[in-house]
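User: Show me sequence and structure for the first protein, then do the same for the second.

Assistant: Starting with the first protein.
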Amino acid sequence: MDTRILSLAATQARGLAIDAVHKAGIGHLGLPLGAAEIGAVLFGEALEFSPTDPRWLNRDRFVLSAGHGSMFLYAWLHIAGYDLPIGQIRNFRQLHSMTPGHPEFGETEGVEATTGPLGQGVGNAVGMAVAAKQCAALFNTAAHCILDHHIVCLAGDGCLQEGVAQEACSFAGHFGLDNLILIYDANDVTLDAMADVTQSENVSAKFKALEWNVWEVDGHDMEKFLAVYLEAKGSDNGRPNLIIARTEIGRGIPEVAGTNKAHGEGGAKFAESARAALGLPADRLFYVSDEVHAGFAKRNETRQLVRAAWGRLFDAWKSANPALAELLESGVERRTPSTEELFEAIPAAPAKADATRNSGGVVLNALAEKLPLLISGSADLHGSTKNYINSSKDFTRDNRLGRNLRFGIREHAMGAIVNGIAYHGILRASGATFLAFADYMRGALRLSALAKLPNFQIFTHDSVGVGEDGPTHQPVEQTSALRLIPGLDVIRPGDAEETAGAFVAAVSNTAGPTALILSRQNLPVLSSIPADRRRLGVLRGGYVALAETTTLECVLIASGSELQHALAAAPKIGPGTRVVSMPSPHRFDAQPADYRESVLPAACRRRIAIEAGVTAFWWKYVGLDGEVIGIDRFGLSAPGEIVMTELGITAEAVVAAARRIGV
């Protein structure tokens, strides 16, 4: 596109940002103004996408990691012809608009990831690059290359200061993700102060040490930026690419440009003078000229030719490779076999006590045979989390088909990368670590729930039953804390058959993420409960594990390793005692009212919940007349059974509680 048109577009994109933030009275102007020329080059020339087919499989993915600069993305999506009318730009940050304060996946066409918490988008982009590499290796053939797109991410100083981004960039360098282009909007400013107040590292040297290609360029010189971008796109030396683009934050508002005051809405009060200085018409707010619209429409005509040519290539590939085409379609549509088929693939549990992490490994490997697009990773803990897919090998520079990801000791990046794999839209991804370390990746888990991503994470070593490692590795609050994330299905199974149900629930859940909470210590086989009831009961979140044999007097509610104690206590309490297994409160609460009433009758107010963790969560099920047996303190360093007994997680404690409430 003509540089003059791109320059006009950059000016008018600045105007859209100024007008939107000024009208809303809140927002972030710094990046949209400072990176306007970068946006013009990307959306006006460099990126390949299709506004009329925004989910086109071979589009370049653009991630705005610095999501606070959302008006950058909204302005360019509008100018580039996406379905984002100017009326939605006018409604920036307003109720039910397509332009929320930070970009949200699924709410606005062209938004590839939900971003805002700094650094997460960098990790998402790395995950997309992983997925793109694996999908290219899986689906491209010698005759037809249908997937060869790039992942482009724009990040700022705040993103690169966050640990999650550093972890992800280290991962990307090691695994040679040369389809990734990270643009660093280097404006030397953070929110509170100039960047040199908090950072002094040599970013170029750091990324070169991480095995990245690095370029530095004036981010306002569009011709030079495009040349560097094309060089990065064409690199084939097995290194990801960093473009350090030097920009002036808030360019276009002289009163704040180049200072930390430009980061937020500080410059919005100068909107009138800024618009005049930029040459924007005083009587037309939210202005994009016909000339700019026409220039971008012309560029989109060539994009449509690329898209059409790809469509013909794809049709030829599909005809030549019907099995691969069916597999690809199943991934895009998030199709999974029926729960019946999945359960049939899982062998019956052996009649011996075992840790649910071990049972989980067996189940995962059985399901991996039915789900060829399922990939699994661990934060340097495969030997402990037991989630290695034995029929495959590692994902490496030399083996992009490996279904096992070795994340290293990078839990936070693992969460963001797994999210990125889901955003890419074909593969199903999972990760694993110890439950005590879930807090390292909570930000990514929260975003996966917000974006409704069909991931699952495996958390083993689920309680004080870990034993000798002591309180640093003994989770007590993590399970309940994860349950508080809206949309995250947290499942804590009580034995091998419930574990089968938990994994089937996880892979069948295409509407959001799942967290599987598994034990390190051996748990008995709960053979008094039919295997089918255990498996299917998990899918409903809670079920009657042991029914009363006379008038109902008391209900015991338990999850995970404590289900055994409730079952052992019930006959000692009396024949009117019911035991309810509650592996997933999230699922149980979503059941019809009549089912919930059949499991937990409102008329029975004598209820006891037991779980080896904090007690607060369970009071909603036991009411004011009930009791909760749990652990409202940190653990102890001793053998697991001794710790459980010392902290009162026993069948005897359940019996004593029943006597206290009058059973």
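Switching to the second protein now.
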Amino acid sequence: MFCISVEPSPRLHQTSRSAALATFALAAIAGPAAAQRETVLKQIDVPHNYYFREMYLPQFTSGPGWVTWSPDGASVIYAMAGSLWRQTLGSTEATQLTDGPGYDAQPDWSPDGRYVVFTSYRNDAVDLRILDLPAGVESSLLANRAVNLEPRWSPDGRTIAFVSTEYRGRWHLFTVSVGGGRLTNPPLMITTDRESGLPRYYYSRYDHFISPTWSPDGKELIFVSNAGRIWGSGGFWRMEAHRDATPRQIWYEETTWKARPDWSRDGKRVVYSSYLGRSWNQLFLMTQDGGDPFQLTYGDYDNTNPRWSPDGSKIAYISNAGGNTSLKVIDLPGGDPTTVRATTLRYRVPRTAVTIRIVDRAGRPVGARVSVTGEDGRGFVPRDAWAHADDGFDRRERRFELTYFHTSGASTLALAPGRYVTEVTKGLEFGREVDTIIVGAEATTHRVTLSRLVDLPARGWWSGDLHVHMNYGGHYRNTPERLRFQAEAEDLHVVENLVVNKEARIPDRTYFSSDPDPVSTNGQIIKHDEEYHTSYWGHSAQIGLREFLMPNYAAYVNTAAGS
């Protein structure tokens, strides 16, 4: 946090001190214990963990995040709020299939319809687990203390391909045989570890291999790799699904971790997510041998994680067109997408409505940051809130990183009976309030009164954050209105949204103006300026610009702007 002196004619003063909005409160109060905070999933040995954390790892979101089709195409299973849910298309009722103690994501339905394999973030790792649908029983499939991601059944249901950091913390493709819901042989790494010798800045000097999808005959995989590339997270490769096979590149474009290709059952087409030189990810189709991509969806928002229906007539995917994530289905060869809405949720354990009200000493509602943590360490958020989380934590204090959401003063959560810890903060000028609440069978309201420790605005000082990226990584589609709401909850009077690139993707370019954003008020300024990226001289904040500098990055090796 920094302070800005407010003059009679307010003018934004420049300062070099900044803190990311998402980690504002904890970063600012870190004291002697800060040395014990370590990054989430620290066994991943890849540089610049911000990028793969926000763009590749599954995230805890209150909306849907991943989807898989039933073999008959009549229903879907998707990940939402850390659990798996099943819903019949055309229905508005969803049934919860899993409920902790980890965060579950990335489901894939077996071809015979009996099993669902999925990832589960628990015990400081990401395990593979399997759910026997008829029996309603889940069990561990692979718990090797590594980060295991993106499991995909082969068409015959005998093999699962997945991504794992088991080998030296690097992203590699593995296969494993499965029978009766259990492993029948140890995992086999099928990609070759290779030091590229390339001067990569954002990525490891070792090539990575992610996002596998099977050919219809189960003999080959298409996946994403940055082999031979200096800049970016990789293009599309194809190889036989066994060790010592030779991969061949079938198409290259920068995919920023989000491509996640899916091979159609007829073998002719591959759907994937791409920004293709634009600012937002949309769905594209290409042939199984690459070909020229055909754009399927359009919009100033992200469409990601696509999956073909078994008959190839539909594609289900995740969209943030409304800000939060939602599940949509589009018909082929084209048409308007439909949203899969779950207005009724059937939980495994009945939930109770718990309303948290935040007020000041005068009893007036105030915006704040709120964290609700259950006895198993998981965080909980309202259905209409955006879930956020720290990027590090002290393992002696908690099992997972702290999750939180922002509120304008009152929010209602659905919680199972039990004990929960609530933590409420509002920047550094208000005291942190920590309470324990016991949830029973009856709806309840928990009231929290925030006390001001110091009133710096009354002394002519404003709090602010000069280094915020409104849209960059993650899974949401933010707006200036939402950013102002978040800033109010964090007690920030000035927010500088630094428009920035990730490779050639610059989501907030259209918001730039030499004036404060129109959503600004007399007591709160939202301003769009620029962060200038270079891979050689570092990054710099350009504040108070009259014109946007383009291109807003330079010096990337192996480009025309290389240095």
